[in-house]
């Protein structure tokens, strides 16, 4: 009974997918265009269909052909772990062939072999870092539980992700909101800040300092516009903001993470 139900469910799922793939695309002026391949760019169903396709075309194929090479895939971004350079070259060629068989193509610039250099792996290599899901993975200084310094291949917020955050913070123009109190600013923006800190601070949180120090600078500019006693005294304003941050560390999420000055 369960097998029959499962077969029926799969049949209906395939029919729905086929209808989505064959559905015409509608342009901004209302014109409908027939499609004979692929999914529409920006379509709400496109990520789901692509994920289903890659699950069969890549995930199951990798598990079957290269069980010794674990991998992570998010949408069409994939990281494959190989025990040696020779194995990496073999897997790279095989993946590219597999994608061509499935009418896909690996990105020529993003598809590369990266050497995870650290204190144990010290060979020279052209590529020793990569970005994945907003993190940059590269050699970084770290400290063991015993207090000994070493080099690990570790993730931290990527430069691209940091740039995106800084652009959004600038767009807030909070330094011009002198009619509001500091608690009002925290209420307006803290949920977004907390989301960034929780995600990008999961690994190597000290790297967040270069991202959120500019936010503190904007809070200083806000205070200088709001309070006459700070108008021409940036140093005094920084001292005041540091005192507030240490006495109310939970007011802003980045203060709670220790990014005060």
Provide an overview of this structure.
The structure is a single chain. The chain is an alpha+beta fold. It has helices at residues 2-22, 46-65, 85-101, 159-172, 182-200, 209-226, 234-247, 253-256; strands at residues 25-26, 32-33, 71-74, 77-80, 130-132, 135-143, 149-157. The strands form 3 sheets. It has a 3-stranded antiparallel β-sheet. The protein has a two-stranded antiparallel sheet with strand order 1-2. The chain has a two-stranded antiparallel ribbon with strand order 3-4. Helix 4 runs parallel beside helix 6 and helix 6 crosses helix 7. It has 8 helices and 7 strands, in the order H-E-E-H-E-E-H-E-E-E-H-H-H-H-H.
Q: Which residues sit in consecutive blocks of at least 5 with pLDDT less than 50?
A: 1-7
Number of strands: 7
* End-to-end distance: 65 Å
Which sequence of strands runs across the widest sheet?
Answer: 5-6-7
Topology:
Layout: H1 2-22, E1 25-26, E2 32-33, H2 46-65, E3 71-74, E4 77-80, H3 85-101, E5 130-132, E6 135-143, E7 149-157, H4 159-172, H5 182-200, H6 209-226, H7 234-247, H8 253-256
Antiparallel strand pairs: 1-2, 3-4, 5-6, 6-7
Provide a brief overview of the structure:
The chain is of the alpha+beta class. It has eight helices and seven strands. 49% of the residues lie in helices and 13% in strands.
Jot down its keywords.
8 helices, two-stranded antiparallel ribbon, 261 residues, alpha+beta
